[in-house]
Amino acid sequence: MEEKLSSVAKTFTPSPIQELSHLAQRCNAINLAEGFPDFPAPPCIKQAAVSAINNDFNQYRHVQGICDQLALKMNKMHGLNIDPLTDIAICCGQTEAFAAAVFSIIDKGDEVLLFDPCYETYEGCIAMAGGIPVYVPLDPPRWTLDPEKLMSSFTSRTKAVVLNSPHNPTGKVFSREELEVIAECCRRWDCVAITDEVYEYITFDDQKHETIASLPGMQERTIITSSLSKTFSITGWRIGWAIAPASAASAIRNIHVKITDSAPAPFQEAALTALSSPTKYFEMLRIEYQLKRDFCMKLLNSVGFRIQFKPQGSFFLFAELPKDCLLSDVEYVKELIRQAGVVVVPGRGFFHGKSGSDQPSDESFRHQKRYIRVAFCKTEARLCAAAQKFGELMNARGSPKLYC
Amino acid sequence: MSTSSTQKDTVSTHDGTPQITQQPVQVAKRLEKFKTTIFTQMSMLAIKHGAINLGQGFPNFDGPDFVKEAAIQAIKDGKNQYARGYGVPDFNNALAARFKKDTGLVIDPDKEVTVTSGCTEAIAATMLGLINPGDEVILFAPFYDSYEATLSMAGAKIKCITLRPPDFAVPIDELKSAISKNTRAILINTPHNPTGKMFTREELNTIASLCIENDVLVFMDEVYDKLAFEMDHISMASLPGMYERTVTMNSLGKTFSLTGWKIGWAIAPPHLTWGVRQAHSFLTFATSTPMQWAATVALRAPDSYFEELKRDYMAKKAILVQGLKDVGFKVFPSSGTYFVVVDHTPFGLENDIAFCEYLIKEVGVVAIPTSVFYLNPEDGKNLVRFTFCKDEETLRSAVERMKEKLKKK
C-alpha cells in the first residue's frame, strides 16, 4: 500500500541527524551532534511550570501576557512597534510557527528562496504547502552573501525569502549590509521575509542580532518566528511564536488552531517568567556560550582543523575538514564515532543542489562534503571529555590518526 | 507569464522601481474561508455577558493529581529537552500496551505509534502525510471544525455525508453511492462530536467492507473513546482486514481533563505511520517532553479511574439532559462524548447562531451553533450543542437560568 502515501511524503527521507544519534547511542558516543543542551533549564523557569500545573493552568488557553512581553522586547531590542493583541501568534515551538507561516502565505507553485547551507526542516514545510524551494548559496569560507546570486534568484513566482540568523549550521550572523541587500530585493520584488531567529540571544564578541523587520519598509512584509527553546534551554516545552502584520498573524493563528489548537498551557504560563528574566540572564547566556565556542575551536584546532570562520552566533561550529584529510564528511563522522566515541553531524545534509536538482558532483560543489557541524551546547564536563577523546586520536608524531 | 524558475527569468513588468503596496503580506488562497473559530467568538461573547459556558469542550475542573505530579517530577528530573520526534520510548510502549488492552491488537511501539501535539495535530499530520491534492476524502457531517481546514490544506476533494436527527444513523445507501475506487480515505469520529453518536458494530462492519472493496484508507478520531456511556466503543482497526488500512487517533486531554497539555497520538501500520511522521516532523518536530512522561503514568491508571470517570460524567449528563428537557428543548440521545445536541426551534429564533446569541445575551448561557460543523450550514440551523464537562453546580446553575429566562414561543 506504499502508493497510498502522498507524493510529498514519499520525497522525504529520515533525518540524518536523528539516524546518527541512534548510532551514537548504540556506541555510547559523546553527542555533539544534536542541537539541544545537556545541562538543566533555569530553576526559576522550571518552578514556574510546576506552579502552573499545581494551580490548574492545564486546559486549552492562550496566555495574552506572552504577547504583551514579546511586544515590549521587540520594541526594546529592535525599536519595533508590535500590537500584542493582533500581531502575535503563540505556537508549539518555532517549528509550528514556521509551518503555519508558510501555510499562511505560500500557494502552490510559489517559489521560496533559502540560503544554502540550510537547516533541513524548512524545505519540507515549503514542499508540503505546494511551494518550490530555491537555494541561494552562501560563499565559503566565510559564508558571505553575494548580492548578484541573490538578485538573480528572484523570479515572478518568488513569494518569500527564508532568513535564519543567527544561522544554523554555520553560526553566521547576517550583517546589516547583507540585511539591506535582502530587504531591497524583498521591497523591489514585493516579497515576504520569513525569519527564524531562535538563536537571537546567542551572539558572540560584539555581534548583535538584528531582525530584518527593523529595516525600512520591512516590518509590513516580515514574519518573525522564534521560541523559548534555545534561549532558556527548554527545547522540549514547545513554546514559540510568529510576529507579523495583523492580517498574516491572524491567518497564522487560525492555521495554528487547526494544526494543534493550543501550545501546552502550563508552559505558556512559565513563559511569562522566562520572558521577564533580568538582563543579567541574557548576558550570562552569551558569555557561557562564547566560552564553549572558544573551547570547541581550540579543540578542533588541536586535531588539525583550521577554522576559517569563527561562529558569530548560535551554538554550532561549522568546520571544514583539514586539507590533508582525505575522508568525506560522512566517513570522518563515522570514524570519529568508532575511534573516538564522539558524534558530530556531516555537513552535506545542509547543502542542496541548484533548484532541488540531483546531487552535485563537480568541483564547485566539492566543499559540500567537506564540513562537519559541531554543537557546543553541552556542559563543560562533556566538552572536556570530548576534547580528551579527540586528543587520543593523535598519534606519536602529533598528527591525527583519523585520516586513513 | 513564464512558469519556469531559471535564473534568467526577469519579469518584464518590473522596471526596478520599488513597489509600494498596501498589503504586502498576502494570505494564501487556501485560507480565505478560515476565520476565527466559532468557539473563540462564543467564549469572548460569554465573558462579555458573564454567561455560563456550556459551549467550549473543556472541563472547568482539573486533571487527576497523580498525573500532574508525574509531570512536575519530570520537569524536576530535567526531562525538558527535545523528545524523540515520534515519541518518548516509554510513552510509545505505554500506548502500545493500552492499545492492546483496548483492542486486542499487538503493535510495534517504535514503528506504529506517533506522538503528536494533541489529536488535532495527529489529524493534521495524517491529512498532510497521506492525502495528495485532488484526492477524494469522505467526511460525515456534522464534523469537528479542524477536519475541513486540514483537508483543505492538503488540497483534498471533500465528499460529505450528512448524519441526521433523531439518531444520526449512517445513511448506508448514500455512503454506497459516494464511495468508489476513486476514494482515497474516509474520516470517522466515534464517539462523535457534536452529536454524541457512537458508530455501531453493524455500521462499522458495513463501512469496513466498502473500504476493503474499494481500497480506501480509514482515519479514526477516537478521542472520546473512554467517554462511551450507552454502548461499548469499537475501534475500526480491530475489525478483520482493517488494521492495515486504518490510522487510529486519540489523545490524553479528554480522558484526563488536561486538554491544555497537547498530548495526542496516531497508531497505524508502518507504511502509513511513515507518512504521518514525515508531516509531523515538519509541523511540530517533537511533542512536549515532560507531559509525555506524565502521560505514560496516566495510561497505566487502574480500571477504577476509568470507571469513576464514566460514573461522574453520566451523573453530569443526567443533570443536563433532564434540565434541557424540562426547559423545553427537543433533546437527541447522546451515547458518548460529553456533548449533547438539541433542537432549539421551540424557542422561535430563526437559526442556530441567532439562538446562541440570544442565549448568551438574554439568558446567560453559552451553547455552540452546529451550522459551523456542516459543509452546508443550512443543515445545522435547527441544532445547537451543549457540553456537560463542567462541575455539577455549574450545570445546575445553567439549567436554572434557562428555566427562568428561556420561554417557548
Largest interface, C-beta within 8 A: A-B, 90 and 92 residues
State the assembly state of the protein chains: heterodimer
Shape type of chain A? globular
Our estimate of the beta-strand percent of chain B is 5-15%
The structure class of chain A reads alpha/beta
Summary keywords:
heterodimer; A: 404 residues; alpha/beta; 7-stranded mixed sheet; 3-stranded antiparallel sheet; 12 strands; B: alpha/beta; 4-stranded antiparallel sheet; globular; Aminotransferase_I/II_large (chain B); PyrdxlP-dep_Trfase_small (chain B); Aminotransferase class I/classII large domain-containing protein (chain B)
If you had to describe this structure to a student in words, what would you say it looks like?
The complex is a heterodimer of chains A (404) and B (409). Chain A has 404 residues and is an alpha/beta fold. Helix content of chain A is 38%, strand content 13%. Chain A has 13 helices and twelve strands. Chain A has helices at residues 7-10, 16-26, 43-54, 64-78, 93-105, 121-128, 147-151, 176-189, 246-259, 265-275, 279-301, 329-340, 380-391; strands spanning 30-31, 88-91, 111-116, 132-137, 158-164, 192-196, 222-227, 240-243, 316-320, 342-343, 345-346, 371-375. Chain A has a seven-stranded mixed beta sheet with strand order 2-8-7-6-5-3-4, sandwiched between helices. Chain A starts with 6 loop residues before the first helix and ends in a 13-residue tail after the last helix. Chain B is of the alpha/beta class and 409 residues long. Helices cover 40% and strands 14% of the residues of chain B. Chain B has 13 helices and 13 strands. Chain B has helices at 38-49, 65-76, 89-103, 109-112, 118-130, 145-153, 172-178, 201-214, 270-283, 289-299, 303-327, 352-363, 392-405; strands at 52-53, 113-116, 136-141, 157-162, 183-189, 217-221, 246-251, 264-267, 330-331, 339-343, 365-366, 368-369, 383-387. In chain B, the strands form three sheets. Chain B has a seven-stranded mixed beta sheet, sandwiched between helices. Chain B has a four-stranded antiparallel beta sheet with strand order 9-10-13-12. In chain B, strands 1-11 form a two-stranded parallel ribbon. In chain B, strand 9 (330-331) and strand 10 form a beta hairpin. The radius of gyration of chain B is 23 Å and the shape is globular. Residues 1-22 of chain B have low confidence and may be disordered. At the A-B interface, helix 1, helix 3, helix 5, helix 6 and helix 8 of A face helix 2, helix 5, helix 6, helix 9 and helix 10 of B.
